Amino acid sequence: MDGKDITDGDDTPTSRTAQLAEASRDLLEAYATGVPIAPLRETIEGLSLDEAYEIQLLQEEQALAEGRKVVGRKIGLTSLAMQRQLGVDSPDFGFFTDDVVFYDDAEIPVEHFISPKVEPEFGFYLGADLTGEVSLDEAIEAIASVHAAIEIIDSRIRDWDIRLVDTVADNASLGAVAVSREPLDLDIADLASTRCALLIDDEEVGAGTGADVMGHPAAPLAWLATTLSKRGVHLKKGDLVIPGSFCAAHAVEAGSRATADFGQAGALTITFGAGPTVKE
């Protein structure tokens, strides 16, 4: 970004940098108030993908300034259908902090979100740093353990009216992450063929295999490591990465119970309530 001046609706000169900072603050306020904002592509003329990631980075920096710890990354738009819907040909990514990570049997208040949906995913804990141009084989080798995960996606953009720049700026629409404490009972060589079903209140509402996630669920991990390295950020040993959903997201409400069911390999269940957060 060059920090050049632009002109807003009332002809007042406003720096581009200030506009991006204001968008970041608006998104953070939406988290706090539960009141979504208009699509950023409509409020910031010509918003680019790099600028959208800058807005996301400003939120990450604010989280760190508040003492929160970034413990992992999410990868979104890993299915061809979602890429076509948003008119893109690659995934996107976001970050998550320790305070939005939940575990088995957590009860999570829906009031923490605006319009939550759930997606079943793998959760990869890394056993090594990943930097530079990372191959699929290198990504697979770096996975220390594979867990059941559920991503709760949410949108601070009104009515989920998003395009790529909107969701990227909004931290790739991340709400929270749930992950099983114990690894799945599967061979890492079987990641692509492993089936996972999404159950809502014990009813299957979607399913897929690892191959539905960019052909192999470690492919998004390789893409993310390479992409972050170009931005001067590196995945670290101990990081948790969720590489993308097995199937379409499903909306949840107070009283919903969501399960990522990997059959004999294991499962993860969380519930949604209206009371205080229960992490364990």
CATH topology (level 3) name: Fumarylacetoacetate hydrolase, domain 2
Estimate what percentage of residues fall within beta strands.
Answer: 25-35%
User: Helix coverage percent of residues?
Assistant: 25-40%
The termini sit apart by 44 Å
Find the structural class using helix and strand composition.
alpha+beta
Q: So what's the CATH class?
A: Alpha Beta
Q: Tell me the quaternary state.
A: single chain
Profile the largest sheet: 8 strands, mixed
* Order of H and E elements: EEHHHEHEEEEHEHEEEHEEEE
Number of domains: 1
The count of strands amounts to 15
Sequence stretches where pLDDT stays below 50 over 5 or more residues = 1-13, 276-280
What's the overall average pLDDT, rounded? 91
**DSSP helix count?**
7
- Can you name the CATH architecture? Alpha-Beta Complex
Overall 3D form = globular
Radius of gyration: 18 Å
The H-level CATH homologous superfamily, spelled out, is Fumarylacetoacetase-like, C-terminal domain
Pfam families: FAA_hydrolase
Keywords: Lyase
GO molecular function: 2-oxopent-4-enoate hydratase activity
Domain Fumarylacetoacetase-like C-terminal: 93-270
Could you explain how this protein is built, in words?
- Residues 93-270 form the Fumarylacetoacetase-like C-terminal domain.
- The strands form three sheets. Strands 3, 4, 5, 7, 8, 9, 12 and 13 form an eight-stranded mixed β-sheet that branches.
- The protein is globular.
- The protein starts with a strand and ends in a 7-residue tail after the last strand.
- The protein has one domain (70-273): Alpha-Beta Complex (Fumarylacetoacetate hydrolase, domain 2), CATH 3.90.850.
- The chain has helices at residues 16-33, 40-43, 49-65, 80-86, 136-142, 164-169, 219-230, and strands spanning 5-7, 13-15, 70-76, 92-97, 101-102, 107-109, 117-126, 143-153, 174-179, 195-200, 203-209, 240-242, 250-251, 257-261, 267-273.
- Helix content is 25%, strand content 29%.
- The model is unreliable at 1-13 and 276-280 (pLDDT under 50).
- It is built from seven helices and 15 strands.
- Strand 10 and strand 11 (203-209) form a beta hairpin.
- The longest helix has 18 residues, at 16-33.
- The chain has 280 residues and is an alpha+beta fold.
- Helix 5 packs across helix 7.
